[in-house]
Write a structure and sequence with these properties.
77% of the residues lie in helices and 0% in strands. α1 packs across α4.
Length: 125
């Protein structure tokens, strides 16, 4: 596994031990799950389609392949986007912040070792 991938995996492990990240991610997944349940019941979509729509909507991707057709579904989507987008961004920001703070906590010895490895010429040619 390459150094950047190892660093990312280590950062993710560190981030998911952070209570703030856990809380925001849990809240985000709960909102997505509840929105999917709502769309499944109100719009009559299979749960997987409703989950797909809930994720695409909160992430602001919006492919347009699924669209709420009921008035209640459309009103819910307006509220879901206005509230959910902020929560989604907060969760993504907390995750990124925790990963970056883990990188900053890397000891100077580890950083020096990695820099030394990168500065040595490769023996593979």
């Amino acid at each position: 596994m390459s150094q950047p991938v190892r660093s990312l995996v280590r950062g993710l492990r560190f981030a998911f031990r952070d209570g703030r990240v856990q809380g925001l991610m849990g809240f985000t997944f709960t909102i997505i799950g509840l929105a999917a349940l709502f769309y499944s019941l109100v719009e009559g979509w299979p749960y997987l389609d409703a989950l797909y729509f809930a994720v695409m909507t909160i992430a602001t991707v919006g492919y347009g392949d699924l669209v709420p057709v009921t008035t209640l579904g459309r009103l819910f989507t307006i509220v879901y986007v206005l509230i959910g987008l902020g929560i989604f961004i907060a969760a993504a920001s907390a995750l990124a912040e925790a990963i970056l703070s883990q990188r900053e906590r890397t000891s100077p010895d580890q950083t020096a070792r990695v820099c030394a490895q990168k500065s040595q010429p490769s023996s593979k040619r």
